[in-house]
Amino acid sequence: MSLIFFIGTLMMTAVVTYGFNLDNFDQLNDAKKSPDKWIVIKNLLVPAGKTLDLTGLQNNTVIEFTGHVTFGYQEWEGTLITLKGKNITVLGKRGHLLDGGGQRWWDGKGGNGGKKKPRFIQVSLVDSTVTGLHIKNSPRHCFMINSSQNLRVQNTTIDIKDGAKSGGHNTDGFGVSSSRNVTISNSVVYNQDDCFATTSGSDTVFENAKCVGGHGISIGSMGSGNVVERVVIRNCRVLGNTNGIRIKTRRGETGAVKNVTFDDIEMKDISKYGVVIQGNYYNSGPKGDPTPFPIENLVIRNVRGHVAKSGTNILVWVAPGSAKNWTWGSKITGGSKENPCKGVPQSLPIRCGKK
């Protein structure tokens, strides 16, 4: 036996094939039953009106996205990708792309009318990690986290820049609800709505993010008896958004916001409000006097930046007695539009509505 043949044979026997290569949508159910619990999703076309349904996964499954994943066009209000399971690892490999093709649906109306538009991805994960996803052009809401626990989402890029000129609307980046102990770190979001928003749940961290072109970082909108508590938003840059940071509670509804911290937030070229906390929120715009709604133990620390001259640096409009135990440290400049404030805790150093 020649030395070359021996080495070649040895190399061939050393090759290990792992994972179920899912490149045909019809094989989805077989992939979820893969005995080695490793699904490689590569260059997959998801048919129009169908969901890439990654629910019912075996515990300890690895989902690996590689290549280009695309979706057929149909007007519908479903979800393009769903993920559900325990001890799940989701990996976006270098060079992959999850392309929603949102421009086919965009009409400037988002979820408020016009074409029926699907959401992009919804996850319900426990004791799991999602790393390195690159998402492009969601038709509307992009990355929704619901009923999750002990979840870490990291190094995510949400690129909906095209929506700015092509009618993208309600293209929210991350949304968290009914979840506990969720951390989202090292993300970049280009979109036309909230970069991040949480509407219920506890022990949420949103950190090390860059938000461009959207509506800012939000708590809410709050109502329906929901409670948000123990949230930390830190080390974020908010650039070219309509708002910097905001808390919005809906008029006439109940719930609570407790123990929320905004720390080390830099904003630049904000068009409307640097910091806005309002208790009379409607989707169509604020109306009337604010409704009593507890916003307790709020910390604003090292929140800084610039608002356009036509905008307002700080607006607080909450029912008297709603705000309790606030700590405030901000330096926001530029805005010249002055608005009256309501419900600000006494002796709090807020230059409300001022330059």
From TrEMBL:
Region forming the signal peptide: 1-19
Gene Ontology annotations of biological process type: cell wall organization; pectin catabolic process
EC number in record: 3.2.1.15
Active site: 215
Keywords: Cell wall biogenesis/degradation, Disulfide bond, Glycosidase, Hydrolase, Repeat, Signal
CC per GO annotation: extracellular region
Catalytic activity: (1,4-alpha-D-galacturonosyl)n+m + H2O = (1,4-alpha-D-galacturonosyl)n + (1,4-alpha-D-galacturonosyl)m
One GO MF term attached to the UniProt entry: polygalacturonase activity
EC supergroup of this enzyme: hydrolase
Family under the similarity heading: Belongs to the glycosyl hydrolase 28 family.
Name of protein: endo-polygalacturonase
Organism of provenance: Lygus lineolaris (Tarnished plant bug)
